[in-house]
Design goal:
mainly alpha, Arc Repressor Mutant, subunit A
Length: 103
């Protein structure tokens, strides 16, 4: 059986380039309300794992200040490279870029 962290990574790998999901979306998909635990899983992920952790944002579209790989500006750079747009408040436009997992 896969660990919780492995389940998180499997879902994050499903997020297409140019799209994002929230910690809460992942938690809900895994049958929990513990979005913080999702964050712990992503923070523990290794950079060369192939898991696009930069595609996960908070419920408002905010970046992770403690993004594991060089901070929130690196997360923003990676998202912009994929075509993700931001508001003047440094939030991802969730209406445009939110990915919805299939049921």
């Amino acid at each position: 059986m896969k660990t919780f962290f492995d389940q998180v990574y499997a879902l994050v790998k499903q997020i297409p380039s140019g799209k994002v999901v929230t910690y809460g979306q992942i938690a809900k998909k895994l049958g929990t309300r513990d979005a913080r635990r999702v964050g712990w899983a992503l923070h523990a992920n290794k950079e060369d794992s192939g898991v696009p952790c930069h595609r996960v944002v908070n419920q408002k579209g905010g970046l992770a200040i403690n993004f594991a790989f060089y901070g929130d500006m690196e997360q923003r750079r990676r998202l912009e490279e994929e075509g993700v747009s931001f508001s003047e408040k440094n939030l991802v436009d969730l209406k445009k870029h939110r990915h919805v997992f299939k049921e």
